[in-house]
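Extended Data, panel c. Modelled sequence:
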Amino acid sequence: MKKRSLVTLMTLMLTAIMFSTLSFSTPAAGSDELKRELLEDIISADKPELFDDYEELYLAKAKTQAVIQGMEGKDVTWGTKEWVDILLGIIDDFEGIAYLSESSVPSDHIEAIEIADGINLSINALSGYNAAEDNEIPMLSEHALERFYRGEGEFFENLSRNEKETKVKIEYENISSISYKKGGIYTISDASRMEFASRRDEWIYKRDMEKASEFIGEASSYLEKARNPTSEIFGAAFMEIIKARDFFEKAKKIYENHEDKELEKVKGIESEIDDTYKDLMLKIIKKIAIYLLILSLFTAIIWKDFKRWGEELDDTRLGEELIV
């Protein structure tokens, strides 16, 4: 659907310049024909569902229709058409944001807010026309827009409460705070509350991410030491990899608490630590096995000698008994 709001203010200005330049073919005064055209456009903008949700827009449309109907044909000029088109464009855009705001998908609501920001510009432009301003048409549109923003503030606040990923939670809190601010005086306290929540969570998040980064750095350092040990002491490298694993687990716990996607980026370090741990464990087992084997052989030799010594001792005692 082609929306009237796509007609920018610059286009309207250029149109005005063209008609003033070509005054010889188009009279500066209005006409009954233009009046009928505008009334047809206003009447055809019939959106029952939208007006049920935003009765301010219905009232703005009704006032606009009453204003045009009460004007003489000669007074309905292209300047009149400009502000009427702006209002109809606002109504069209409201239909779009009303549809998007019914979605449960956050990106649809973000898109709706972006469109709403454009509506706000259109309302400011509408305020520049005395006929519209005198009949409070921009004010009615503004009230409808503020109510939309309040709804979005509540939507993103609820999202933030249930969001587990801290980074996304902070984003939702920010959007909620900004939306509440744009919602007018009724939600100033809500805006302050959500801004405080956003700043608090952001401070905690940054603090924890710095800790996690430090732990990852320590884990990487001990991993390198385990791979290239500076000490020949038995088990020294294994102790280094134990430290590396401990530091990584601390970082991992922080990332998991925030459900942060950064954890996926450091998974490679965990794999390297596990592989190095297994290699060192295998080496230690081999060394212990060799040590036990040597110890067993040494024990067997000693036992054999001890047994032989015992047998010789028994023979000596037997000889002594025979002599006696």
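Residues 303 and 309 are 10 Å apart (CA to CA). This feature is highlighted in the accompanying rendering.
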